[in-house]
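Handout, page 2. Input:
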Amino acid sequence: MTYQQMTIETIEKGIYLSEENWEVATLGMGCFWGPDARFGSMAGIMRTRVGFAGGTTPMPSYRTMGDHTETIQIEYDPQVISYANILKEFWRNHYPNRDNYKGRQYISLVHYHTDLQRQAIEAIRKEMETELGESIETEISLFSQFTLAEERHQKYYLKRYPKALDQLAALYPNKEMLVDSTFAARLNGFVKGFGTKDSLQKEINQWSIGETEKAFLTKLFLSLKW
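Output:
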């Protein structure tokens, strides 16, 4: 396979071999752009999507959110990163007791998908209350639904670098392809200041893809003009 023949599907096929074992986390922690970059930079986080959850308004959008909350939904490999560590990152990086500014748009929110997640939330919340020195008022409830936000909100920080997107166009001919891509999640985190060139190169070399694909991604990453 030549570099010209590569697509993001063939490159990430190896990464997705364990997809059936991934789990989902759904979190609200203020504006969803920052969390998308923060979690997207972390090893074990395989996909990030931003959207709306927690409310009852039908068909929410960014302009007509109703009673929903800006939310990030994460698919992660529990063999690499635990739900407990995701929760710690969540509570350490936003204020969980803010007033309902703009209604429910920016409240602290966590939806659990399983009973094991619910138990972890209860345990980690107590641990984090001790660490933070105050009670946590995060809204906690069973997951019901998640509505994907508009394309322009996905991988927001990466899209602020049009030169880089032009260089990535052969890999992502459609910007909607950025939503589910592990590599795009890492790039979005990198441009926001999470991670380093060395750490991302190291992780690429650990992915379950061929050596040709690893070399391609590394070369592409290092050649990007921001």
